[in-house]
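Subject: Interface between my chains keeps coming out wrong

I've been trying for a while to get a sensible model of this assembly. When I model each chain on its own everything looks fine, but I need the whole thing in one frame so I can look at the contacts. Pasting all components below, labels as-is. Any help appreciated, I'm running out of ideas.
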Amino acid sequence: MNARPHIGHALELVQADVLARYHRGRGDAVRFQAGTDDNSLKNVLAAGAAGARVQEFVDRNAGAFGALGGALSLSVDDFIRTSRDPRHRPGVEAFWRACSGDLYRQRYTGLYCTGCEQFYVPAQLRDGRCPEHEAEPEPVNEENWFFRLSRYAAPLREAITTGRLRIEPAGRRNEVLALIDGGMADFSVSRPAMRADGWGIPVPGDPGQVVYVWFDALCNYVTALGYGQGGPVHGVAYRRWWAGPGSRVHLLGKGVLRFHAVYWPAMLLASGQQLPTGIFVHDYLTAGGRKISKSGAGAGALEPAALAAEYGADAVRWWLLREVPRVGDADFTVERLVARADDELANGLGNLVNRVVAMIGRYRAGRIPAPAPVPPGGEDLDAAIRQAGDLVGAALADFDFRQATAAVWAIADEGNRFVNRVRPWDLAKAGSAGRLDAVLHLLARACAAAGRELGPFLPDAAARVTAQCTPDGAGRLPDPRPVFRRLAP
Ligand SMILES: [Zn+2]
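Reply #2:
Try treating it as a single job with all components included. I did that and got this:
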């Protein structure tokens, strides 16, 4: 919360939204939780630099993050703010006490990067600088609480190698195993309250220290569920969503992998809780070939809410889902966003739906012809329609959003190809009524399938497509209306 959101932040929110919508659509019970990590030292510094009070400063940025829900059509069920939410602090205190068997106090000297909020050993630095922030860490000598991470190497390794804790992509899983095998040093889980300017949650029974921001922030996953409320049984939501059976999946960027895949599972084991079942790690976006800086020049133009206001949530979501690979960084430019949306949405899917609805209106008075065998030349389109559901399911089980959207896009692509090949207008002119019925029926099926399969990815556009393909009470399709606008000037 040390700055406003940029396009990179939108990525994992949109990915999580797709998974949530997909599973809800299949009848699974889903709880989609997001939130803001407010209690960091870097917020104290950033607020100071901006001449603002810390709470006001993080409130302002958190407001911009919260507003992404509406701007990007996210179906977030719960949004927790660690500095404001009354569920959080008692949950962190309970979590701390549950870990007390693994906590001890010790004086420590180390190199600290405030950007990362972590200590580094010299071997982890690149030319003496933090590899993430390219800033020189500062030497810190202080007394902190430490967490006995070393105790959890074996159980953690076992959870990962057996797949009980699934980390994707595989390269990230190997990275975590290498971290574990490289030796897990105990890590400090508190800071002197003085150095934190009093910002953060006081350590239970030791008010001179505040809880380390990562220990604090990671707890959000269970404090929002009522962990630490209702005594040792915790809240109802906790028992249902965390302590119960089912999947517990985190989505995160590669820069915070260690915290989510090493510290967090160890904290859960120490406090006697279940582990997450899955962790999906995305790489980073660059903008115009450069690292996205939160506060740099032009950062405002990369704000997801501003992009959605200008180009529509559909176009922003489609770019993130279609162009960001499962492994590797992706480069964002407005030109790419516009080209992708115009190519595949306006000229691809939008054009198909528009043509099909118009032809059914013109040739069949808006009535979709009765089911008929697939006409010659329609085999590929028929296959794309029938396979889309399975392909989407398999791709999403693998967190492969590009592959999943490709299956939906294939329907539009094959549909337009089919129209160009069979030329329904020629069939109408030649009076081939039976042939034309079969062609129009297949095309209507394609549009309906595209609307249905698009739902998790572009909920707003999916609703417009479905409305175009749904007959009214009199059995007629509505008049054709564009489902996407063209974005290029
Ligand atoms: Zn750093």
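Reply #3:
Confirming on my end. The mean pLDDT is 95.
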